[in-house]
Amino acid sequence: MIPAISIKNLHKRFGAKPVLRGIHLDVFPGQVLGYIGPNGAGKSTTVKILCGLLSDYEGEVLVQGIDVRTNPVEAKRRIGYVPELAELYDVLTPSEFLHFMGDLYGMDHDVCERRMLRMLAAFGLQDNVHQRMDTFSKGMRQKVLLTSGLLHNPDILILDEPLSGLDANSVIIVKDLISKLAKDGKTIFYCSHMMDVVEKVSDRIILIDNGSIVADGSFEHLQQQQGNQSLEQIFAQLTSKDTLGQAADDLMRAFD
């Protein structure tokens, strides 16, 4: 089977600082990959490279066999990207914004309209389709952002903290949607600090620390390697180097 995403010997520096140190990774159709790590580990840099937002790196990154660096436009057509921050055109309505996104992907107007209305209704935004987004809450903006990432029915979905700002019901919807998309053969590249969610939705988990992969496998496999612990405990064990308890003690001493 051809990988949906193939990363070979990926290195990236910002100035003299190495951020990614030789990442090797193949992700296959139908997989939900949880990509986790502490702040500064290189998660966001990996995502930006995958999405064609950074091109000055060493190594090879392929999306469905397409080189992201040499053919970024064609690679981007295969990807739906939901960034952590919902940076939208506030003066537009969801209808205007999503039709603009549909035009960028070369979608038929009627197909775009039909999908947009169905998705927004599923998120409970059917009464806000023609309302300017500068009045929207963070959760409402996130729902529009999720709709924009799914609108062109991409084969690969890259989610960076997609549940940010969502209410409990919407979180349930998105988690169920991720499972259904994977069963439909979509590839989900899921970045999050919410360990309990990653544990539940991912069938494979990559833990990255200091620019390198330090764990790779299903949650059950990681448990077998690290003991019968939660993903949060495994994460802390592999990345904190026993500093978390000391940090909490130091914070408490600030009140002395």
Number of helical regions: 10
What can be said about the biggest beta sheet?
6 strands, mixed
Average pLDDT, rounded to a whole number, is 91
Alpha-beta content class: alpha/beta
Proportion of residues in extended strands: 15-25%
- CATH topology type of the largest domain: Rossmann fold
Instruction: Count the beta strands.
Output: 10
What does this structure look like?
The chain is α/β, with parallel strands linked by helices and 256 residues long. The chain has two domains: 174 residues, Rossmann fold, CATH 3.40.50; 67 residues, no CATH class. Helices cover 40% and strands 23% of the residues. It contains ten helices and ten strands. The protein has a six-stranded mixed sheet with strand order 6-7-8-3-9-10, sandwiched between helices. It has a four-stranded antiparallel sheet with strand order 2-1-4-5. Strand 7, helix 6 and strand 8 form a beta-alpha-beta unit. Helix 3 packs across helix 4. The chain is globular, with a radius of gyration of 19 Å. It starts with a strand and ends with a helix.
Keywords:
single chain, 256 residues, alpha/beta, Rossmann fold, 2 domains, six-stranded mixed beta sheet, four-stranded antiparallel beta sheet
